[in-house]
Specification:
heterodimer, A: 252 residues, alpha/beta, Rossmann fold, 2 domains, 6-stranded mixed sheet, globular, B: 270 residues, mainly alpha, MetI-like fold, 11 helices
């Protein structure tokens, strides 16, 4: 069910290339895709397939060469308040405490400081860092810092959450915990979630649909991964999904 | 690893108790030994006491100068010269540095001429400034200003240019305007680098102050050093020299304290 303000996206003929020294390198070739509001999509592909470029276009940090994106029917131009990005690195401001970092997005958007801090406090609690609200970023572990980044994005209450390999820099254990937490938060906040990842298991664990970006001119493929939640990485259905995805990459 | 660090590590590996007295000895032991050696060498006649008077004679000269107010006047005029020049260097160096760090065109246009000016010794230019501005206060303040401007300007420019572009992009992704990015990301990020420039310049300001007061001045701590030497008041000469060292230490301590306050988040303060 898609309501008008639900964070549904529509990509039409989206194309982007880069000028190299001797030739034009095209990374996205006319992508068409509809993403339902409140759903979750993972974007996978080999490096150079343009998955990060696609996410940056959705974020409004880059412009497509051709085609466009609409969110709930409105064309996207640049960054917008209905979206928030979680980067691979936490990108915390080292001179602000955890709480002030989480409130940063809201303050930038003009929310009065007291109200911003109030809401930030809620999301600091949601990511389990209440005891660290007054701490400097340099005192945090990698996983904790990334949680602060997630809380900062959630605090602006976006309709669409864009994540660029959010757990790529974390150790394997922390990554599993964070994936679980992200699914929990996604369930609570009712946002549309778009995750770029190179980890196929992560893609199946997080997403309802996986977009496989090919390298070169082939058309991208969309694979349904609507397993029941909570998902068990060791269940036969999960393993079958994983094998199906591996086949997409010609690996088996 | 700096030398005190090595000593500290060595002390720890020997499992010496960390007594405060020991810490003080480690830190100030050599300084105390130097002063004791000076006093002893002067008193016993190892060195000519006329050239190296004992410390008590220097202390007496310092006290006399301060209590009669003679040296206080010199301190006041010196601080006024250095302070005016330093304030002007900050007032121009930081804004221009911020602009140069932000706007490539400004940097490209200004950089060659600034590099040329910077490489030209301020002392070599002092005669030029005297010709232009006369032998009074203006040329003295200007030569200090000239020498203190460049460290502040270049440190600020460098600090702004080294701001992590990823942080800027993060702020932009939340819809921050250029001004907001500048105020909330670039300025705080560049602050530690700016302080490096400020501390360098404070040292330079005192150096140029003395040089300028040795030529054509009739007041000021630098003038006192020169004047006392002419009149063979060697204890007074050393008193003025120690006074200058004290001013330098005080200026640095003030800047470090300010930096600690403003950059509590950073552990780059040393």
């Amino acid at each position: 069910m898609t309501s008008l303000q639900s964070g549904g996206l529509s990509l039409r003929n989206l194309s982007k290339g880069y000028a190299l020294a001797d030739r034009q390198l095209s990374v996205l070739n006319g992508i068409n895709l509809d993403i339902e509001g409140g759903s979750s999509l993972a974007i996978v592909g080999a490096s150079g397939s343009g998955k990060t470029t696609l996410l940056r276009i959705l974020a409004g940090l880059e412009d497509p060469d051709r085609g466009g994106v609409t969110i709930d029917g409105t064309p996207v131009r640049g960054v917008g308040t209905e979206r928030a990005v979680i980067f691979q690195e936490p990108r915390l401001l080292p001179w602000l405490t955890v709480l002030d970092n989480v409130a940063f997005g809201l303050e930038v958007r003009g929310t009065p400081r007291a109200e911003a801090l109030e809401r930030a406090r809620h999301y600091v609690r949601l990511v389990g860092l209440s005891d660290f609200a007054g701490v400097w970023p340099r005192q945090l572990s990698g996983g904790m810092a990334q949680r602060v980044g997630i809380a900062r994005a959630l605090t602006v209450q976006p309709r669409i959450l864009l994540l660029d390999e959010p757990f790529g820099a974390l150790d394997a254990m922390t990554r599993l915990v964070m994936q679980e937490e992200l699914v929990r938060i996604w369930g609570e906040e009712k946002v549309t979630m778009i995750v770029v990842t190179h980890d196929l298991e992560e893609a199946i664990y997080l997403a309802d649909q996986v977009l496989v970006l090919p390298k070169g001119e082939d058309a991208p493929r969309l694979i349904e991964t609507d397993l029941p939640r909570p998902r068990d990485r060791t269940s036969p259905a999960f393993v079958r999904q994983r094998e199906a995805l591996l086949r997409e990459f010609g690996l088996h | 690893m700096s030398f005190p660090d090595i000593l500290r590590t060595a002390a720890r590996s020997l499992t010496l108790p960390r007594l405060p007295a020991l810490a003080i000895l480690r830190r100030y032991g050599l300084l105390a030994a130097f002063l004791v050696l000076w006093q002893a060498a002067s008193k016993t006649g190892w060195v000519n006491p006329a050239v190296f008077p004992p410390l008590d004679a220097i202390a007496a000269a310092l006290w006399k100068g301060l209590s009669t107010g003679a040296l206080l006047d010199d301190i006041a005029i010196s601080l006024q010269r250095a302070g005016t020049a330093y304030a002007a260097a900050i007032a121009i160096g930081i804004p221009v540095g911020l602009l140069m760090g932000q706007i490539r065109l400004v940097e490209q246009a200004l950089d060659p001429i600034l590099q040329l000016f910077r490489q030209t010794s301020a002392l070599a230019l002092y005669p030029v400034f005297i010709l232009l501005l006369g032998l009074g206060e203006a040329s003295k303040i200007f030569v200090i200003f000239w020498a203190t401007l460049f460290p502040i300007l270049l440190a600020t420019t460098g600090g702004v240019k080294e701001v992590d572009a990823k942080l800027v992009e993060m702020a932009r992704s939340y819809g921050a305007s250029r001004l907001t990015v500048f105020r909330r990301v670039i300025l705080p990020a560049a602050l530690p680098a700016i302080f490096i420039g400020l501390r360098l310049s404070a040292t330079t300001a005192l150096l140029l102050l003395i040089a300028s007061e040795m030529i054509g001045a009739n007041k000021g701590v630098g003038f006192q050093v020169m004047n006392a030497q002419y009149n063979f008041q060697i204890p007074l000469m050393f008193a003025a020299i120690f006074l200058l060292a004290g001013l330098g230490l005080l200026a640095n301590a003030l800047l470090v304290a300010l930096q600690r306050r403003l950059c509590r988040w950073s552990d780059r303060t040393n």
